[in-house]
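Good morning C.,

I know you're traveling, so I'll keep this short. The sequence:
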Amino acid sequence: MADNRDDLFDVAVIGGGPAGLSAGVALARALRSVVVIDAGEQRNLGAESVHGFLSREGMSPRDLLAAGRDELARYGGTMASGYVRSASRRDDGFVLAMADGSTVTVRRLLIATGIVDELPDLPGVADRWGRDVLYCPYCHGWEIRNRKIGVLAADGHSVLQALTFRQWSADVTFLLNDALELSAGQIEQLAARSVRVVEGKVRALGVRDDKLVGATLDSGATVDLDVLAVSPATMSKANMLQRLGLEPVALEEGPGSRLETDQSGRTSCPGVWAAGNATDVSAQVMTAAAAGLRAAEAINADLVLADTRKAVEAARVPAGQ
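The tokens, ready to paste straight into the viewer:
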């Protein structure tokens, strides 16, 4: 990325996924100078298609991002590839230090960097992530309906995950994986929904013809599976904000972290917003895009007020001074 020290963007969006691109397009349409900086590490790039996005059902994630970049360019927004190493405050804006040594000066920041999924330490999980090892039933449930689904326990929240996947299949196996001890109530719930419970540590996944076929336990026993649902820790990717004193907070509902914001996406750091998975780890593609739009509207409103204050101050200066 070229050194832009002499340029001043109204807004820099860090992260070019659905949230970031949606915000970028909205800001460009508001006649703001906006740059969307992307490192190309969206978490859903390994998935075959996007679901739950009205009118874009089944579209590949890469095609969706390409369409978003085209829209951004159509309205005069700038797309830039690269990593933001750090952000520091300058006057009433910010300076972004890029990994290639260049800098970008902006008035406002939107963080749409998403999250990193820290997958279970089980051989084969990372290789099959987004294919037949997955997490979200609303993203993949229809495609795996009526198949043999295994749910790998991680904590107490995994019980609800198993009960939820039961909505899409009558063949659900809950693999305790030595991760938790079920309460009497949980045992009753799983039994009532005909969810099998298998004790013992899972040692490996079975794959044949590039398809998941099961899981092997430490005991040597095997469990037939077509799909494995896991519960990754979802970690915020916002290290570049440390100089601004903005730190991710721990999730309440499981392992992981996120940036804390108000309903508009505004963080506790003046001039910085966040949208998408960076602040809502459960956001799907469509809700992430909507959050980007909402944050863009809030950022533009903030800039309108800032521009108006400057105009009022300039108008108060007597002529000739």
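Safe travels,
E.
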